[in-house]
Amino acid sequence: MIVFLDGELVPEELAVVSVFDRGFLYGDGLFETMRVSGGRPFLWQEHMARLERGAAFLKIQIPFPADDLQKHAEALIQRNQLPEALLRLTLSRGTGPRGYSPRGADKPRLVMTLHPTPVTDGAHSAQWSLVTASVRLPAAEPLAQFKTCNKLAQIMARSEADAAGAQEALLLNTDGFVVEASSSNLFWITDGKVVTPPLVSGVLAGVTRAMVLELCRGLGIATQEGTIRPEALAKAEGVFLSLSSVGIAEGVSLDGRPLARSPLVPRIEKAYADVLLRNSAR
Amino acid sequence: MIVFLDGELVPEELAVVSVFDRGFLYGDGLFETMRVSGGRPFLWQEHMARLERGAAFLKIQIPFPADDLQKHAEALIQRNQLPEALLRLTLSRGTGPRGYSPRGADKPRLVMTLHPTPVTDGAHSAQWSLVTASVRLPAAEPLAQFKTCNKLAQIMARSEADAAGAQEALLLNTDGFVVEASSSNLFWITDGKVVTPPLVSGVLAGVTRAMVLELCRGLGIATQEGTIRPEALAKAEGVFLSLSSVGIAEGVSLDGRPLARSPLVPRIEKAYADVLLRNSAR
Questions:
Q1: 10 Å Cβ neighbour count for B91?
Q2: Per-residue model confidence (pLDDT) at position B121
Q3: Theoretical Cys-Cys bridge with A189: which of A49, A63, A238, B201, CB 3.0 to 4.6 Å?
Q4: Cβ-based contacts of A138 with chain B (< 8 Å)
Q5: Could you give the CA distance from residue B276 to residue B269 in angstroms, rounded to a whole number?
Q6: Is the distance from CB of B32 to CB of B51 less than 8 angstroms?
Q7: Is residue A111 left, alpha or beta, with left meaning phi > 0 and alpha meaning psi from -120 to 50?
Q8: A132 has a pLDDT exceeding 90
Q9: Of B227, B188, B226, B186, nearest to B208 (Cα)?
Q10: Is the CB of residue A34 less than 8 Å from the CB of residue A26?
Q11: CB-CB neighbors (< 8 A) of B58 in chain A
């Protein structure tokens, strides 16, 4: 596997960073994971827009213009001959003096790697067992909107799903609302409407989340933002998750109890698969 | 500078980790920072005990027995001829399959690096201007007790202190209580008693925090755990912080307003400096 590292394409074994890199020391960075289909990153502009917002918030300068980066990404995909894959882009603040202050750390690093796609793709529906994780996210925390390299809460949550033989774990925020899953945004269906928690509740501004809301509008399905407690979620007309790597995954059980299945979910899945197909045929 | 990397002493420029290391990808690791005095790490056992608790919580195996690690640390100090320094130990989960699940990531990495001591040492009192940070910590989150490599909240807080020309930033938790500072534990004095937030409020289990409580008892100063809101903290009889790198730092102002100074703080500082001196003369 060839890796993009700070402007160069290098073999995997040479793709290394210093142990003094703040990404390694503190998770001081951001990342994006996107589908690659037909040799092109899917929703590249949207992922870049989120990366840029996050980088502005953390005050990390992205060391390449977005257009150059897209060309580098396409070259990486071609070089590895992986037109169907996942692309991870990592932006780290780089090395600097010891301590939390980012002062003096002004050589950010940018890495892109390719990974196999999950077995599930947009054309086949993913049906997931869910568990409620014990770890909680801080409510109303602006940092949570960005895809930062601080993912221990999500790792702990995912471990709980693994231990239960489930595919994904739902997280509550400190206000007691279910707000998202470890690597996906949460949607549920109430009175025929698709509902998802607002960004202010402390959830990641998912690129696929935004696309789902847009697709629903295109399908004439009403959407709204709202909050929900675990008891109510268990009684929803349907539950699904959105994530860049898989697209849409339907929740089929929660903590071992079956969830209701809504006919809206396959419709949204189909609409998503169509958009992905158009990207790859473009 | 020579670095300890997975059992070897290597030059700084060869001290690298893969861009696939979960420490770099997600901050999936733990660390300890301790004073080195007289060629020996100060409070080594206590730091190791916290590392072990954190590693058990995150289910990361520490790849060296604690005794071996201490010998390696002392060899590193000797090799670099830095008997007065800071030692940082980082434990990362290592590489594994893509995604948050830690399954399959079973080759943890252990790094130790040395750094210059801050100008302030235990023998001279540190007097710090403080600000209240806007970022909030999740209340009652067990993960917060451990010194994990997820430090973006602390980095953002410290940036706010930098911007205000202050030395440290205080953080509130999602319940609205001031619970700790970006890299130090918080103490205040009320009715002649030294008070600090309980670990359940979501604060780091500081090694120096535990030592301060012990020193106070030795000095006949009453201690208790308690919560405090920013308005009340501003009116305390005294405020100080504890951290391994510096020891005790007295808060002299908060958000630009002077804080009261308590005669208890220099007494505790003196007691701490004496313990550090005994370590180095041992």
A1: 25
A2: 47
A3: A238
A4: 136-138, 174
A5: 11
A6: yes
A7: beta
A8: yes
A9: B186
A10: no
A11: 152, 155-156
Interface contact flag, B138 A138, Cβ < 8 Å? yes
Buried b (16+ CB within 10 A) or exposed e, A252-281: bbbeeeebebbebbeebbebbbebbeebbe
DSSP-derived secondary structure letter, B143: G
Amino acid at B93: R
One-letter amino acid for residue B278 of the chain:
R
Rg (CA), chain B: 19
Token pair belonging to B260: 């009261």
**Which of residues A147 and A118 earns the better pLDDT score?**
A147
Mean pLDDT rounded to a whole number for chain A: 95
User: B interface mutation test: which of A6, A19, A175 has the most B CBs within 10 A?
Assistant: A19
Q: Which residue has the tokens 């699940």?
A: B101
| φ, ψ at B31 (rounded to 5°) | -145, 170
Using DSSP, state whether A201 is helix, strand or coil.
Answer: helix
- For A277, B6, B168, the CA distances from B94, given in Å and listed in that order, are 36, 11, 32
Take residue B78 and report the two structure tokens written for it.
């000797």
Instruction: Please check whether residue B242 is in contact with residue B248, taking contact to mean a CB–CB distance below 8 angstroms.
Output: yes
- Partnered with residue A194 across adjacent β-strands are A189, A223
Structure tokens at A234: 């268990």
Question: Which residue among A5, A19, A21 sits closest to B5, beta carbon to beta carbon?
Answer: A19
Quick one: closest CA in A to B86, which residue?
Answer: A98
More confident residue, B20 or B116: B20
d(CA B60, CA B46): 19
Give the pLDDT confidence of B61-108 residue by residue, as tens digits: 999 999 999 999 999 999 999 999 999 999 999 999 999 999 999 999
| Positive or negative: CA dihedral B168, A102, A92, A203 | positive
Chain A interface disruption, residue of B155, B173, B200, most A CBs within 10 A: B155
Q: Please, which pLDDT band fits residue A121 given cuts at 50, 70 and 90?
A: very low
Residue A185 identity (one-letter amino acid): N
Q: Token pair 């058990």 is at which residue? A: B56
Which position has the token pair 């960075």? A29
Contact indicator for B140, B200 with CB cutoff of 8 Å: yes
Residues of A with CB below 8 A from B140's CB?
A: 136, 174
Check: CB of residue B29 under 8 Å from CB of residue B60.
Answer: yes
pLDDT per position as a tens digit, B157-212: 999 999 999 999 999 999 999 999 999 999 999 999 999 999 999 899 999 999 99
Alpha-carbon gap, residue B26 to B100, rounded angstroms: 8
Nearest CB partner across the interface for B153, out of A88, A143, A157: A143
Give the separation between CA A269 and CA A211, rounded to whole angstroms.
11
Choose among B98, B141, B159: nearest Cβ to A115: B98
The structure's pTM equals: 0.96
At A181, give phi and psi (nearest 5°): -115, 175
